[in-house]
Amino acid sequence: MYSDARSKRVVLVSHCILNANSLSDGTADYPAVNSDIVQLLARSDIGIIQMPCPELMCLGLDRGDVRGAERHVVVENTRIRAELEKPSTHRMLMSYVDQVTFQAEQYVTAGFDLLGIIGVDRSPSCGVNTTSKGGREVAGQGVFVESLQAALHEKGISVRLVGTKGRRTEEALRMIKDMIDGT
Tens digits of per-residue pLDDT, 91-122? Predict the structure, then answer.
């Protein structure tokens, strides 16, 4: 099965890396796509699984406050994180975790190499190395990435995590290249 031209190598990618239009107001560092990351994956024949944007899907494009961009980014991100952690919103978020986990499990079961997750540091939902809490950027993961990693672990799926942030993609590109090369 699957003995055609496909590479059988995939990576989970945060929605906003592929669509900056989904970002919270005031946080976009590029007009549409982080083309450096996308081009590296495309040149390496890596399939891109676009994860849903949990903030957009659970809170809407304005994240529940049209004046969010008037606050400092980590203060606004802290507010967004608190909204995502509310029980009703968290249940919605977990339904997206379940969907991504199902996809990942399907690929792994079919013998594909799931290389990892590329997230966005400082994000209250998709942060990998850092997230926003208490009005500051702190070490830790966003609520979506943390929940997704736990769900994958429950399925026996271990993945590498790479975090990128804004226009500072050089370090992320090196880490993604290491992920691709298995180093």
Answer: 999 999 999 999 999 999 999 999 999 999 99
Q: What are phi and psi of 43, to 5 degrees?
A: -60, -30
DSSP reduced 3-state for 49:
strand
3-state class (DSSP) for residue 174: helix
Give the span between the Cα atoms of 57 and 89, in whole angstroms.
10
pLDDT digit string, tens, across residues 134-153: 999 999 999 999 999 999 99
Beta-carbon contacts of 67 under 8 Å, excluding residues fewer than 6 positions away, are: none
Q: How confident is the model at residue 2 (pLDDT cuts 50, 70, 90)?
A: confident
Strands 136-139 and 130-133 turn out to be antiparallel
Query: Do 77 and 138 meet the contact criterion of CB atoms below 8 Å apart?
Result: no
The residue type of 74 is V
Pick left, alpha or beta for residue 118 (phi over 0 → left; psi -120 to 50 → alpha; otherwise beta).
Answer: beta
pLDDT at 166 over 80: no
CB 126 within 8 A of CB 119: yes
Please tell me whether residue 28 adopts helix, strand or coil conformation: coil
